[in-house]
Amino acid sequence: MLRIFSATGHQLIGNGDVLPADAVWIDLFNPSPGEEKQVETALGFGVPTADEMAEIETSSRLYVDNGAIVMTATLATGLITETPETVPVSFVLGKSHLVTVRYAEIRSFDRFVAQLERAPAQCGSAPMALMGLIDAIVDRLADGLEHVGREVDQISRAAFRRAEAGARGRQQQRRSNLALQALLTRLGAAQDGLSKARESVVSLTRALSFLQFAAPKDAGLSAQIKTQVRDLASLADQASFIGGNLTFLLDATLGLISIEQTAVQKIFSVASIVFLPPTLVAGVYGMNFAHMPELQWVAGYPMALGIMLAAAVLPYAIFRWRGWL
């Protein structure tokens, strides 16, 4: 799809149609080879293909082609959903035209288009359209990081909220174990979104640094680029802060799970120690020897039961006294 934006509005054109004379921003969304060729022929510079956009080396992402500045950045999408992902997007800034190439829906583009519908003058020139679009991308990225930060805060509260003791303590403890395991999944999802946001911040920072170096001085982009770079630096700091919290929460959650598992193992250990002495007594009097005086006593059976009961209660009382239970 080929969308054309100018200071007077926007329109869709088909393959083979002539580009409007007042075209400023040309958005290629899932373009066909014919549409790419159409734009290249009309503007006089090349448009990156999908394979070229997938390259990761800097020389293939940031370069100048026939006077046009070509920048391919990795943008994070879906940060506020359960399926965040990163997609490459190319920005080609010519003398009087801006061309964007993308193969995925990006909400920041839709947000900027909505702004142009209210104020088409923001698309008065190619540099103006580029900086407005980048501003919308950075704002959307900030929203995504805020969402990840709120999710981390919720995970923190859930991880350290302990079940209240009471008559239903055992059932609550079981739910706590399952909740802690679920937190690991949420932590993984938050880390996934954060890593993609960080990648996008780094990629955009590199693209803007290259733009500041390659853009003509008379374009008047220096001040706006510096503002966006500062905004991205603050987002990088925020991402580092959230990443530190995620690391702490991961260690804390694993520690809490280990504590819960240790508590279960302690119960089995105490149970084995409590029942071991009575088993010993029962084993002694269960042996088939002819000369066992206690077998002939009238009080022998109650005595054996009393010894087994005392042997079970005494270790339990000692453990409670020492604070091990």
Main features:
325 residues; alpha+beta; Methane Monooxygenase Hydroxylase, Chain G, domain 1; 2 domains; 8 helices; 7 strands; 13% strand; rod-shaped
Write a brief caption for the model.
The protein is α+β, with helices and mostly antiparallel strands. The chain contains eight helices and seven strands; from the N terminus they run E-E-E-H-H-H-E-E-E-E-H-H-H-H-H. It has helices spanning 33-43, 50-53, 58-61, 107-118, 126-159, 169-214, 222-285, 300-322, and strands spanning 2-6, 9-13, 25-29, 62-65, 68-77, 85-93, 98-102.
Topology:
Elements: E1 2-6, E2 9-13, E3 25-29, H1 33-43, H2 50-53, H3 58-61, E4 62-65, E5 68-77, E6 85-93, E7 98-102, H4 107-118, H5 126-159, H6 169-214, H7 222-285, H8 300-322
Parallel strand pairs: 3-7
Antiparallel strand pairs: 1-2, 1-3, 4-5, 5-6, 6-7
Helix pairs in contact: 4-5, 5-6, 5-7, 6-7, 7-8
Structural summary, described in words:
- Helices cover 61% and strands 13% of the residues.
- It is rod-shaped and about 115 Å long.
- The protein folds into two domains: 2-262, CorA soluble domain-like (Beta Polymerase, domain 2, 2-Layer Sandwich); 264-322, Up-down Bundle (Methane Monooxygenase Hydroxylase, Chain G, domain 1), CATH 1.20.58.
- It has a seven-stranded mixed beta sheet with strand order 2-1-3-7-6-5-4, with helices on both faces.
- Helix 4 (107-118) crosses helix 5, helix 5 packs parallel to helix 7 and helix 7 packs antiparallel against helix 8.
- It has 325 residues and is an alpha+beta fold.
- Residues 163-168 have low confidence and may be disordered.
